[in-house]
């Protein structure tokens, strides 16, 4: 019963989105902390890759029904109800003489986007739970 | 998510040590025999338990001086030169600004993490 409620509507997707944002936030914090560390290479997981995995999971559930099923990708592992990130070092940025590929602007942009994504998911999760709660209270 | 606080905290601590070194270099730029301080960072938590975060790998004293011939100076060596530290004011100021900006970026990261935890806690209420 409890498992059924947890998997109601968009809840499993919102839960994964919060897990992903939380884990990505930790990585972004690490990159910011190491912005002056010689040889450090910024590592990240593309939010687009996560969104594609979400899209596939939603399409799969719509086609076949049942619980949300997330497929692993190169950088994402979905197991035991959690999202594990396997980030790769980026090669997009300019490499400085100390071997660091820092880009503070890119990091701060990622941090803002990630925070908003988490907040968005948390608010939706909360509202969905309120809807569920209202429905439960209306039952005779 | 609490680990994110530790990561940003290690960044704040490392940047503060760097700023301390810059302050010491600037304060002693006219002190004979003062050896310029250089701070180097390395990846990983200072406790060594976590590969994430940053730590101060070494605080080096650089043995480089600007010798000025002044045999009457009581601080002069036997060769008659007074050895002032090779502190470049401009370089140190740039280093200080960089450290300050990195410190602010870590503060922003702490704020973002705190707001995320706030949002998560609001789901309960």
Number of extended strands of chain B = 4
- The amount of beta strand of chain A, in percent, is 5-15%
What oligomeric state do these chains adopt? heterodimer
The number of distinct helices of chain A, counting runs of at least 4 residues, comes to 4
Integer tally of domains of chain B: 1
Structural class, from secondary structure content of chain B? alpha+beta
Percent of residues in helices of chain B comes to: 40-55%
Backbone structural class of chain A: mainly alpha
Gap between N and C termini of chain A: 18 Å
Topology record:
The complex is a heterodimer of chains A (140) and B (125).
Chain A: H1 2-6, H2 11-33, E1 43-44, H3 47-64, E2 76-79, E3 82-85, E4 88-89, H4 104-138
Antiparallel strand pairs in A: 1-4, 2-3
Helix pairs in contact in A: 2-4
Chain B: H1 2-27, E1 36-43, E2 54-62, E3 65-69, E4 81-85, H2 89-122
Helix pairs in contact in B: 1-2
Describe the fold and architecture.
The complex is a heterodimer of chains A (140) and B (125). Chain A has 140 residues and is mostly helical. Chain A has helices spanning 2-6, 11-33, 47-64, 104-138, and strands at 43-44, 76-79, 82-85, 88-89. Chain A has a two-stranded antiparallel sheet. Chain A has a two-stranded antiparallel sheet with strand order 2-3. In chain A, β2 (76-79) and β3 (82-85) form a beta hairpin. The relative contact order of chain A is 0.19. The model of chain A has no long low-confidence stretch (mean pLDDT 87). With 125 residues, chain B is of the alpha+beta class. Chain B has one domain. In chain B, 48% of the residues lie in helices and 22% in strands. Chain B has a two-stranded antiparallel sheet. Chain B is elongated. Chain B starts with a helix and ends with a helix. The mean pLDDT of chain B is 92. Chains A and B meet through α2 and α4 of A and α1, β1 and α2 of B.
């Amino acid at each position: 019963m409890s498992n059924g409620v947890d998997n109601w509507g968009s809840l499993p997707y919102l839960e994964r989105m919060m897990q992903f944002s939380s884990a990505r936030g930790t990585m972004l914090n690490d990159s910011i902390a190491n912005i002056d560390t010689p040889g450090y290479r910024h590592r990240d997981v593309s939010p687009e890759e996560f969104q594609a995995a979400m899209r596939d999971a939603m399409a799969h559930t719509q086609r076949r029904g049942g619980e949300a099923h997330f497929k692993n990708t190169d950088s994402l592992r979905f197991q035991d109800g959690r999202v594990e990130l396997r980030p790769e070092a980026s090669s997009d940025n300019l490499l400085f003489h100390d071997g660091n590929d820092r880009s503070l602007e890119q990091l701060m942009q990622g941090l803002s986007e990630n925070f908003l994504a988490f907040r968005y998911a948390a608010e939706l999760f909360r509202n969905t739970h309120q809807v569920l709660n209202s429905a439960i209270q209306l039952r005779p | 998510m609490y680990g994110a606080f530790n990561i940003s905290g290690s960044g704040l601590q490392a940047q503060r040590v760097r700023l301390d070194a810059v302050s010491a270099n600037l304060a002693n730029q006219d002190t004979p025999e003062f050896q310029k301080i250089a701070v180097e960072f390395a990846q990983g938590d200072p406790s060594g338990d976590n590969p994430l975060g940053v730590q101060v790998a070494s605080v080096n004293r650089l043995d480089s001086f600007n010798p000025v011939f002044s045999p009457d100076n009581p601080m002069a060596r036997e060769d008659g030169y007074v050895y002032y530290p090779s502190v470049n004011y401009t370089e140190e100021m740039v280093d200080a600004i960089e450290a300050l900006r990195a410190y602010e970026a870590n503060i922003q990261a702490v704020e973002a993490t705190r707001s995320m935890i706030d949002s998560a806690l609001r789901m309960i209420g």
